[in-house]
Amino acid sequence: MGPPGSGKGTQADRLAERVGVTRMSTGDLFRSHQERGTELGRLAEGYMKVGEYVPDDVTVRMVMEWIVAPEQAEGFVLDGFPRTIGQAEALDREAEGIGGIDRVIYMEVPRGELVARLTGRQVCRGCQSPYHVGFAPPAVRDVCDRCGGELYQRDDDKIGVVERRLGVYDQETGPVIDHYRRAGKLIGVDGTGTADDVERALSAATATGPD
Ligand code: AMP
């Protein structure tokens, strides 16, 4: 878990690879539904554009369908879920049958840095690789180094929407952080520095267990 722009997508990818399980990002899943023009995609789009959360019933159904698939039996890393108390309760219930949630990693980054990261972010349309116009630019402007795809700015990374997303995060997701802290599962990780620095901090913290 972590606020928008905390680097949770990048770290979730690396963590999933390191421990040999699959990773699922609810944001990526919603965006892929939108690109395919599904009903779920159309429903989610209206909320995402303005920086609001997609309603719990829709989000929870989508995630639970994914979790129960046989491919996930060995475990998984969730990125961007749960983001509300309702989602956390649904996840805790579902995960009980498969051994429960082991750890919740919470990426901590100061607010000013989040805004700078998000408003300069670009994403590849093809492979979803993230870039930053200032901190991590591609070799050729607007072209993905990995797959040659076109880079674009997400609508919800524009400044007005970024502010709204951070406000919604504080209000809705703040209580979820407290919920997992009380359960003794929360591991705070310093999310500043390079992706490699953060990965090292995250590996060290997960090796020793919750705070
Ligand atoms: P992300 O890619 O994680 O920044 O998510 C982008 C947007 O997708 C969010 O601003 C929400 O509109 C929506 N979204 C992603 N995950 C969730 C979730 N767990 N609950 C509700 N909405 C979500």
- Order of strands in the sheet with the most strands? 5-4-6
The CATH architecture can be named as 3-Layer(aba) Sandwich
List low-confidence stretches: none
Termini Cα gap: 15 Å
Ligand types: adenosine monophosphate
Provide the CATH top-level class. Alpha Beta
Proportion of residues in β-strands? 5-15%
Order of helices and strands: HEHHHEHEHEEEHEH
In one word, what is the shape?
globular
CATH fold-level topology? Rossmann fold
Give the averaged pLDDT, no decimals. 92
C-alpha-based Rg, rounded = 17 Å
Please give a quick description of this structure.
The protein is an alpha/beta fold and 211 residues long. The chain is built from eight helices and seven strands. The two termini are 15 Å apart.
Question: What does this entry look like structurally?
Answer:
This protein has 211 residues and is α/β, with parallel strands linked by helices. It has one domain (8-208): Rossmann fold (3-Layer(aba) Sandwich), CATH 3.40.50. The chain is built from eight helices and seven strands. It has helices spanning 8-19, 26-36, 39-49, 56-67, 85-96, 111-119, 159-182, 195-208; strands at residues 22-25, 76-79, 104-108, 121-124, 130-132, 151-152, 186-190. The strands form three sheets. A three-stranded antiparallel sheet has the order 5-4-6. The protein has a two-stranded parallel ribbon with strand order 1-2. Strands 3-7 form a two-stranded parallel ribbon. The two termini are 15 Å apart. The mean pLDDT is 92. Adenosine monophosphate (AMP) binds next to helix 2 and helix 3.
